[in-house]
Amino acid sequence: MPGLYLEVKKPQKSGKPGSKLWRVKYRLDGKENRFAIGAYPAIGLKEARELAWAAKREIANAVSPRQAKLAKIDAQHLTQARTFEYVAQQWLQLKAPDLVEKSLAGFKGALANHVYPVIGQRPVSDIRLEHITQIITSLKTQGSMAMAKRVRTIIRSVLGFAEGRGWVERNVALSNSEELKIRHVVNSNPAIEKPDDLGVFIRRLDDLNDNNVSMALRLLVMLPVRPGELAVMRWEDIDLTGADWRFIVGKTRHLSKTKHIVPLPTQAVAILRRMQKHAVLDDQGKGWVFVSPVYPAHPINPTSLLKALQRMWQEHDITAHGFRATYRTIAHERLGIDPVVLELSLSHRMPGALGAVYARAQLLEQRREAAQQWADYLDLLKQKVLDRYSDQFAGNSDLVTTELPSNR
Predict the structure, then answer these.
(1) Are residues 300 and 320 located together in one domain of the fold?
(2) Which family is this sequence assigned to (predicted)?
(3) What are phi and psi of 74, to 5 degrees?
């Protein structure tokens, strides 16, 4: 082809062959230039012609073949540097401001433990479906369905982040491959499911000394909130006159800054008024409701609620979070409360087309009625326990006090 030639140089040492280099001569911006294609025989005539034509196309676009070659090398270096771990770190930096600390730590842990060991150092552009299915299949084989689902979501998000920046052609993790399908996972917290058992448990609460943990437990049974939310309850978020507690739900803080409203039944207001007499507040009237006995500047740890529950209810598994399930189940089955009202009381996002409508309406009056109805029902269950054992041991006051179901 025109301009292509083989440059042969004399050997610099005797007995050694001279170098042979393919070059292409061209003119750009009125100046004659030469571009080195590669050495012969490593590059044969056919390949030299193809490379020369590629150089001619660059020249036709007013681009120096040498500059085009250097740009290609730089792009290759960038591609090699953009490993999955590098891209994941970039993605985490973007997400961090909208994530609570627990969620961020969960993402980092899943990446470090399950993803990085397999594809962490692989260029993101080289990741194929089989690499991802290897990770997911391994977790599914171990029975870690929840983690498999989380890891799949994270990988999809990271590759989507890379696709948006043009670092990958497409997000292979969005494939409908059977290996990426994960059955629905429901994590159930052990909970009290029978009203009679719930009555016994509430009766046992009366045996506890009045301290911050026991008072928190009394509210935990009454209010359908998460243990971690209750543990960090603050006085400035409570309106005892209006009988409500307003706070931003930590679990969905990155999705919404709207405060969740927890209507307080009269029984809860009574407990909080008792505690308010001994509240430790700053100059602005702010402070923790449940102050840690060990670290007065901090609230109690939610783990202390779980430990107290396990001491009280040794005959069955129980978790602090499980009282939300107790409320959701018994309030619907025994009290007939509307499931929509229950779900909003639990600060759950309503699914379906009407979800946004319910979220805006909040059904606050219906939830307030449900809260009072639930608290009254708990009192009724406890009274039934007292009545049952009073009848059983009628005429023997000592037995009435000693034979009540207790776990002290």
Answers:
(1) yes
(2) Belongs to the 'phage' integrase family.
(3) -60, -40
CB-count exposure of residue 107 (10 Å: 0-12, 13-18, 19+): buried
What CATH code is carried by the domain that includes residue 258? 1.10.443.10
- Torsion over CA: 160, 161, 163, 167 (sign): negative
Q: Which of 44-58, 173-187, 359-373 has the least mean pLDDT?
A: 173-187
Q: How far is residue 253's CA from residue 92's CA, in Å, rounded to a whole number?
A: 17
Instruction: Quickly state the pLDDT bin for 259 (edges 50, 70, 90).
Output: confident
- End-of-domain residue from the set 54, 80, 106: 80
Q: What is the pLDDT of residue 5?
A: 80
What own/partner pairs with CB < 8 Å and gap ≥ 24 does 361-367 have? 362/261, 364/261, 364/263, 366/338, 366/341, 367/261, 367/263, 367/341
What is the pLDDT, as a whole number, of residue 152? 93
Lowest mean pLDDT among 65-74, 193-202, 225-234: 65-74
Instruction: Assess if residue 344 is contained within a domain.
Output: yes
**Per-residue pLDDT at 404:** 43
The rounded distance, in Å, linking the Cα atoms of 148 and 181 is: 10
Residue-wise burial string across 14-49, b where 16 or more C-beta atoms lie within 10 A, e elsewhere:
eeeeeeebbbbebeeeeeeeebebeebeebeeeebe
Q: Is residue 203 domain-shared with residue 289, that is, in the same domain?
A: yes
Is the domain of 89 the same as that of 75? no
Q: Which domain holds residue 101?
A: 84-180
Q: What percent of the chain has pLDDT over 70?
A: 86
Does one domain contain both 73 and 96? no
- Look up the CATH number of the domain holding residue 72: 3.30.160
pLDDT for residue 276: 93
Number of domains composing the chain = 3
- Give the integer Cα–Cα distance in Å for 376 and 354: 31
Q: Are 272 and 239 in contact (CB under 8 A)?
A: no
Question: Among 368, 362, 334, which residue's Cα sits nearest to residue 265?
Answer: 368
Buried b (16+ CB within 10 A) or exposed e, 235-265: bebbeeeebbbebebeeeeeeeeeebbbbbb
